[in-house]
Amino acid sequence: MRLGDQVHTARKTRRVLLAGACAYAALSAGAAFAQDATPAPGDDTGTTQVSDIVVTGSRIARRDYSSNSPLTSVTSETIENTGQVTVEKALTQMPQFSGAQGQSTAGSSSTSLNGGQAYASLRGLGSKRTLLLLDGKRLQPSNPDGSVDLNIIPEALIGNVEVITGGASTAYGSDATAGVVNFILKRDVQGVTVASQYGISDYGDGESFRLSVTAGERFADDRGRAVISLDYSMRDVAYQNKRDYYFTRNRQSNTAIISQGAAWFGSNRPTLEAVNDVFVGDYGLNPVLGADGFYNGQIGFNTGDDSLFNLGGASPVMNFKDPETDNHFLNAAGTNMLWGWNKGRIQNENERYSLFSRVDYQLTPNIDFYLQGSLTSYESEGTFNPTLAGLAYALSAPVTNPYISNDFAHILASRPNPTADFALWKDLDFAGERLQSYAYNVSQFIGGLTGQVGYKDWTWEAYASVSKADFENKQSGGVSRSAITRLLYSPTGGSEFCAGGFNPFGNHDPSPECVNYMVRGTTNTNELTQRMAEASVQGGLFELPAGEVRFAAGIGYRYNHFDFRPDSALDQPDGTSDILGYSELRASSGNVESTEYFAEFLVPLLKDLPFIQSLEMDLGYRFSDYSSVGGVHAYKADVNWQINDIVRIRGGYNRAVRAPSVGELYSPISAATVDIGNPSAANTNGDPCDVRSSFRQGPNGQKVADLCVALGVPSALIDSYQFGAAQVFALTGGNPDLQEETADTYSFGTVLQPTFHSPWLSNISASIDWYQIKVADAVGTLGVGNAIRYCFNDGGNNPNFDPNNYYCTLQDRNTNDGYMVNPRQPLLNLGQFNVTGIDVQLDWRLHLADVGLAEAGSISIGSAISYLDSFEIQALPGAPTFDYAGTWGTAIEANAGQAHPEWKASTSLTYSRDTWNVGLRWRHMSEMMNSARVTSPKSTTRGVDAYDVFDMNARIDLPWETSVRFTVTNLFNEAPPQVGDIRGTYDAQNYDTLGRYYSLAVTKKF
Q: How far, in Å, are 169, 651, 910, 953, 963 from residue 916 at the CA level?
């Protein structure tokens, strides 16, 4: 962290401490200690009588804590044992989740509306299909696609987290397609708790710090209770170059855009004779090779003496005189100069302030009032490489530029059109690193009433919520295309615009005045608002022989709006962007509102029969009327069969519905950097038109070449065409014609709670659940990488190699050089996803005193295991369906996660005494093949090795209501497994790229 940042942080920390002191003075006068009056689930030491319980996934209060859907509960202690200052890692490490965007998303040139956010992706189906709730109520989305950012969760108050798999639209409405994550907060807090945590990696970076002050008290003769929590956290950057498993010079790369600059001629190529006049006649080198009398490579520019070097053609690089650095170096074959960057991050910066407060008050014996408010302000920052002007974003220069040397002028004059402009590729590193900062202010206020109806045990609730998320995205390090073009086309080299002008031929540093003339900063803003209201009633209806029929019913309203305003430099009147290095954007806004009606019935069918202690059915229905797609229906039928005290069987069917979000309907058109990989004869990566690709070298190579020419690759270049990058800038945006997606989810499982008398087996429980989630008409982007490959018949998607094939219509090519220009990845109702698997949960505890070891404490083991049987994706209706279970490399959307291991497990072993415990956790992910082999079985693209990592945690309770916790994550500093063929490439969302990490936390109660 920079010194200025440290001072800034210190000042802010003091403000948090002062605020905490104020909270203590206001709420804890006379309090002797803090305690949670409500015991945690499974804790039999509390004294509070627990009455009816509402289980996540249902709206009906019941007497027991049994769920008909597969449910996993994560305690606050489990979250703390991750050693992180944010909750996302605790979820990502659970077998039910796939790694999604979060703290390891370190920086991008894509101008997104979600930078710096952290998401939860259940079953790899994406954050927008994973509904996040706070005490059963919706949160303010931070992304126009409806995703909720985990950064807004008041972590200091988390009691536990309940996760259910499968559609829950009947209970909660849209977005609960993959399941629900419900954060349940501590309610009856008394006294003051101050907690602080510090962490640092084994490499001395990635520091984190957190400070929270939580205070609560009852008042008005126990008719009211209030709680307030202030939370500050910061996370600093971690760098790739400090870890030996990253590489600063990746000679397998394909990005040939260097700071010396290089000319690219496209179809207007110079003659070999003219090129060799210089390289052989003037420099005394070997002849440069070409084809048909023309030179097919690029010409680069040495910095010191205006001499030239060749690169990117059939010949080895010759006459390169500048020293090789981490920013420009030879490729492995010696035929090209590659770009590099040695300041890559593996963890982004994040600073967050959070305030949460709630007041409950009993107005009358039958009516309670509550008011809840939260404010979260956080900022994340990501840096990445300087602007690269190349390929579709190359500069254009005239032959009249005064800095052109005589040698280069001779080569230019040999072209068929000797006076034509030429393309100039250049790393514009004089502009410095690009930086994007993302600042969010998210607020939500909920007010409601609850009470007794006065009939049987019926209760009612009515509440309203207003919330807002403001987003500001500042970008620096971009370069104005119009400004640099004026300098390139100036007859003086630009000296009339800035001191010294601009010499692009070589690695020359422009004057500070010229840098300021070219470099630009931009600012984009987005505002999201949400308004909700709901009224519901629940209780018992009538008695059946097997028990009471219970119900819940209600009506709700929800309104979502967003308004995005890009910087004018990114949204030019002609539809283009003036900024090299950042995506073009368009202003956009829209809103969606819905009115919803729901009902649920819990019907006891049988009880007290042989093998049927109880049998009940949970039936539910919801009708939602959207302003966008009209009326949609969701429904469910769940069964709970308690065979005896030991065995319970659960399962059911849910029809879930997800209406397209306001962002999916109306989000602005923008460009995003998408990795397509490097071409090779052994895989399907890269541009299929590249002569090095498996498409060109395969049995249909000529058909591929003909299709490339039909799409725009010049016929003069087709036999030597190479695409010099591993990324493209793909266009995407909202689609107001989208329809709802539907999901049919099935589950079936068994819960075992044996009552053995042996102390070795008396505290054991287990569950096993099978699930299937089948999403039809799924709303998502048709990934540009797949679309490019499918155009060339990957997976049998274009058997006639027809240029009018749908996938081929999504790519445009520059007819001068053949490069792809803003290929499109449209937002559509795609085909379908089908995910099936099995979850196993096992918990065991042994009190050592029961086996003769008095006062020796206890040992416990908890294991969660997930098996993925299928992960099927159909890109479009009628298209082939591919199963990606057991593979890495394909995600259904950008924030959903690319890893789909067959096996993922987390197992903990804990030894506990009265005042301390120590634990060891083992995390496992099975090996995966690369997803390229699913559509191209002959592909040799490298898969991912199995991954096993261990974490250690310990805590001790000290006198004076103080506890200390110490955590070591990745205890043995296990390096992440490589993904793909490029060494030093890792999946930071699913694997630990940070390395061994230490954290120390102290909690004090007053």
A: 42, 39, 11, 11, 9
- Residue corresponding to tokens 């931009």: 522
Helical H segments across 348-465, by residue range: 406-412
Residue 709 dihedral angles phi and psi, to the nearest 5° = -65, -40
The Cα 503–Cα 480 span in angstroms is 16
The total of other beta-carbon atoms located within 10 Å of residue 854's CB is: 7
- The CB-side HSE value for 1001 (13 A sphere, CA atoms) comes to 30
Output the CA angle 11-15-20, nearest 5 degrees.
145
- State which amino acid sits at residue 18: L
List Cβ<8 Å contacts ≥24 apart for 325-330.
Answer: 326/248, 326/249, 327/258, 327/259, 327/427, 327/429, 328/258, 328/259, 328/260, 328/427, 329/249, 329/251, 330/251
What is the DSSP secondary-structure string of 445-498? EEEEEEEE-SSTT-EEEEEEEEEEEEEEEEEEEEEEHHHHHHHHH-TTSSTTTS
At 340 the three-state DSSP class reads: coil
Q: Which residues contact 41 (CB under 8 A, 6 or more apart)?
A: 65, 73, 160
If DSSP states are collapsed to H, E and C, what string results for 516-562?
Answer: HHHEEEEEEEEEEEEEEEEEEEEEEEEEECCEEEEEEEEEEEEEEEE
Q: Give the residue from 767, 744, 547, 771 showing the smallest Cα distance to 649.
A: 767
- The pLDDT value recorded for residue 684 is 87
| Residues 121, 97 contacting (CB under 8 angstroms) | yes
Show Cβ contacts of residue 557 under 8 Å, excluding neighbours closer than 6 positions.
Answer: 531, 532, 533, 534, 593, 594, 595, 596
Contact 548, 603 (CB under 8 A): no
pLDDT tens-place string over residues 166-222: 778 899 988 888 899 999 999 889 999 999 999 999 999 999 999 999 999 999 999
Q: For the beta carbon of residue 784, count every other beta carbon within 10 angstroms.
A: 25
The residue type found at 609 is L
504-518 pLDDT per residue, tens: 999 999 999 999 999
Three-state DSSP state, 593: strand
Q: What type of residue is 178? A: A
Q: How far apart are CA 714 and CA 718, in angstroms?
A: 6
Please state which of the ranges 40-54, 155-169, 745-759, 888-902 shows the lowest mean pLDDT: 40-54
Nearest to 488 by CA among 514, 512, 507, 513: 514
Per-residue pLDDT tens digits for 651-680? 999 999 999 999 899 887 777 778 788 888
Handedness of CA 812, 815, 820, 821 (dihedral sign): negative
The strand pairing partners of 612, in sequence order, are 609
Please tell me the predicted confidence (pLDDT) of residue 63.
60
What is the pLDDT at residue 6? Answer: 37
